[in-house]
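Researcher: Sequence recovery benchmark, item below. Answer with residues only.
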């Protein structure tokens, strides 16, 4: 499936603001690919599809996961943003014909990151956070600059901010984000 076809399908499936966000992530990911000498087409595809599982409520997303046989541990069920990432990686393959494992993993890990990420995983993780449509939050300007100057440091700060946000919201501790932060703060 080419980018244009995927784009049209997504525009029908996602809410307008979610669709606009995916466009921002797609072009931000492409810019970062240019900066780091990464394959631009892969970055565009991963950025465009990263939220393809983000429609309906988290409950509906969890129900779809069950229907498609995607396993979610109890801990994962607690971390709502994780569910659409798992569903998205599944749908990218099943509905958008993406076979490229690098792209599928970039979608799978876009909300939590993971230790020792691939270049594409780092690009999508950060592009999701810094795309131009994101509303200004503390630390965002710094992460935007670092994303183009020191990508590992950018990932570290991004995970740190996400953890602080979860804590502030009294949300369950997301162990994968914690592991991501630990790995990149020691790098
Ligand atoms: Fe997402
Ligand atoms: Fe996103």
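Model:
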């Amino acid at each position: 499936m080419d980018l244009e076809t995927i784009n049209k399908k997504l525009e029908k499936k996602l809410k307008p603001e979610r669709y606009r966000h995916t466009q921002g992530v797609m072009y931000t990911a492409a810019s970062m690919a240019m900066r780091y000498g990464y394959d631009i087409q892969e970055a565009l595809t991963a950025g465009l599809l990263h939220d393809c599982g983000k429609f309906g409520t988290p409950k509906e997303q969890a129900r779809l996961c069950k229907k498609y046989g995607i396993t979610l541990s109890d801990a994962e069920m607690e971390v709502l943003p994780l569910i659409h990432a798992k569903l998205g990686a599944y749908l990218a393959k099943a509905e958008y014909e993406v076979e490229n494992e690098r792209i599928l993993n970039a979608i799978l890990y876009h909300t939590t990151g993971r230790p020792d990420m691939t270049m594409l995983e780092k690009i999508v993780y950060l592009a999701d956070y810094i795309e131009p449509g994101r509303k200004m939050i503390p630390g965002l300007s710094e992460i935007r600059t670092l994303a183009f100057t020191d990508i590992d440091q950018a990932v570290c700060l991004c995970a740190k901010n996400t953890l602080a946000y979860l804590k502030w919201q009294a949300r369950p501790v997301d162990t994968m984000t914690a592991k991501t932060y630990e790995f990149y703060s020691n790098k």
